[in-house]
Design goal:
Length: 214
């Protein structure tokens, strides 16, 4: 994601999928190359921050013919998700917030920590974006400063790209929000290899009709 860490915005490029037809091509076909999307650039930033020294992925492979494996699953309507053995609340994962654009900024957040921090056993696109927006608000809201509330609210609503990395479980999700419709999906699943492999594998998925909204 081209941008800077908040609270210092910098002009960026276009929105999700700019220049490559979005998650689908012009005729709705599967686009295997997701590396031009803002969420992919945000993923590379997150890997650089939380997994320094690891070789970044060069591209994404279609999910067809690939065994996803637990705790991940695929939902045709909203992309990838995680099914956890238990749920926990009150966990505080690390996070880095980035902003793109100046006139109409969009926000992205990289979250690193246990997947249970989301607070539900099923972590899907809608739940992940909701969690990311809550973290964004909490990060930018300053106790005792009511003037920080409007900015924190606007920033939370403007979160369009989310990367969640569970280093212990060796898995991560990348979520996107369609700025026009508000539809959300997780088009990329990240598999973090064993330390000696120092690689990250990613699988792309073209979303079908998405009915969930953030």
């Amino acid at each position: 994601m081209d941008g800077t860490k908040v609270p210092h915005p910098r002009a960026g490029d276009g929105g999700p999928g700019a220049g490559n037809g979005g998650p689908r091509g012009a005729r709705g076909e599967f686009v295997s190359d997701v590396t031009g999307r803002p969420v992919w650039r945000l993923l590379l930033r997150g890997l650089g921050v939380y997994l320094p020294g690891w070789r970044p992925p060069e591209g994404a492979s279609p999910v067809a013919g690939v065994t996803v494996g637990p705790p991940a699953f695929v939902n045709g309507g909203s992309g990838f998700g995680l099914h956890l053995p238990a749920r926990r609340e009150g966990l505080e994962p690390d996070r880095e917030i980035y902003v793109r654009g100046r006139e109409d900024p969009s926000f992205g957040i990289v979250i690193a920590g246990p997947s249970e921090a989301v607070g539900s056993r099923v972590v899907d696109a809608e739940g992940l974006v909701r969690f990311a927006r809550r973290l964004t608000f909490e990060e930018l809201f300053e106790n005792g400063d009511p003037k920080s509330v409007p900015y924190a609210v606007r920033a939370a609503r403007a979160v369009q790209n989310v990367v969640f990395l569970d280093r212990a479980a060796g898995v991560g999700l990348c979520a996107e929000v369609d700025p026009a419709s508000g539809a959300v999906w997780c088009p990329v699943l990240v598999r973090i290899g064993a330390p000696h492999e120092r690689t990250v594998r990613a699988y792309g998925l073209a979303p079908q009709t998405v009915r969930s909204h953030s």
